[in-house]
Amino acid sequence: MMRANVIRANSPVRLPNPDWTPFQSGSDVCKIRIGRCYNPDWTKGNSEMDAAPTYPRFAAAHAALALRDTPVVMVIGPRQCGKTTLVRDLIKGKRDFLTLDDDTVLASARSDPAGLLRSMGKATIDEVQRAPELLRAIKRRVDEHRSAGRFLLTGSANLLTVPQVSESLAGRMEIVSLFPLAQAEIRNRKPAFLKFAFAGKVTQPGEIVTGGDLVHAVLTGGYPEMLKRKRPDRRRAWARDYIRAIVQRDVRDIAEIEKLDRMPRLLQVLAHHSAQLTNFTQIGGQIGFDDKTTAKYIGILEQLFLVRRVEPWFRNELSRLVKTPKLHFLDSGLLAALLGVTAERIAEDRAILGKVLETFVFSELLKLSSWMDTGCAIFHYRDKDQDEVDFVLEDDSGAVVGIEVKASATVTAHDFKGLRKLGAASGGHFRLGAVLYDGDRAVPFGDRMFAVPLSCLWE
Length: 459
What we know:
There is one protein chain. This protein has helices at 59-67, 83-91, 103-111, 113-118, 134-144, 183-186, 193-197, 211-220, 224-228, 232-254, 263-273, 280-285, 291-303, 332-339, 343-348, 353-370, 417-426, and strands at 6-7, 30-33, 54-57, 72-76, 96-99, 123-126, 151-155, 173-177, 202-203, 307-310, 326-329, 376-382, 388-395, 400-405, 430-437, 443-444, 449-453. The protein has 459 residues and is α/β, with parallel strands linked by helices. Strands 12-13-14-15-17-16 form a six-stranded mixed β-sheet, sandwiched between helices. A five-stranded parallel β-sheet has the order 5-6-7-4-8, covered by helices on one side. A hairpin with a 4-residue loop joins strand 16 and strand 17 (449-453).
């Protein structure tokens, strides 16, 4: 009976997901070429640009659908994840395009936002977080003449949390999240992992990625510029430059802080605390911050999509659960660069992979959940006996899936201890518990419990 819940990878699957709804003739998803050609501040010239591969961006269909019925659509995500390329491909030159990375346009947006928009019809505005005051002018323009797809925006900061944005675009704007490339996009596969997991099922992997190939995927992460670079030292160099540019430039755009020079050190400390319970006092003590300053600065890094807090999962009637959040980086390649993790070090000590692998899985789950029809939140589980589950996914109906991450190629019954506790705590809402491991077969371990190859994340 248990084996009936293991589905072969080549089984026909049709996902009820609007992200797969064609928005262009003959195309299910938007194909995005690696590399951002427009902004010289962020992309250096590269003779390989024309030969760069293309990848589907599964968020593109969501953006296209939103443009048909919503006045303002904003694509948000970290710098260099492909936002500008995505929106340029969507509009194909059919509307005004402005980027606030242009200093002249930025000065106009800050000094006279209403004047900048006055002569525009439908417009695309890139990097709008650099002039949050522009959103108030956009709100007025939409209220004067409400039509679908009036403004298509991109932002490299979560503007809904920026203090300067005092007026809400609620009811006028839809947010589309775009992250660095998922493995499903890199490998051009339509993932159904979460769809099956919430149905209490798993698939056998079609494309098996284990051992050194898995380590390569984890250390590379999903940024297009990292994927372009074949040599590990060149990927690490890009990651360091990227982080430096974010700290020196984008932090100033969204916050006034006095100790900007300590941001790089804070990121280093956070890298070593990644996937651990967040203790602001302990983190801040390593760089001379009190807990309130530490929380403020981490909040800025969250706004810039470098890190994200993962809140604890609990039910009000359960008093024995730890209610402290964890902190994760959004990209395993950036985390590996900050920690100095290399394939050579992992070969000598496999334990080094654990923290970076957990971040890799978190990033993949975040992307998969963003493509679901229903809302899906990611939590972690930990009780006062120190039993834990790395990730708890809960959809809008309250259904719960538990995910534990293991860098080993073997799984034992003991690895399911936290998942069994989660199953008991969530009662009838529990759908599936999975231990993701460096293997090639999905194996049942009891009622709704499976050891699942990491490769299944992009099946």
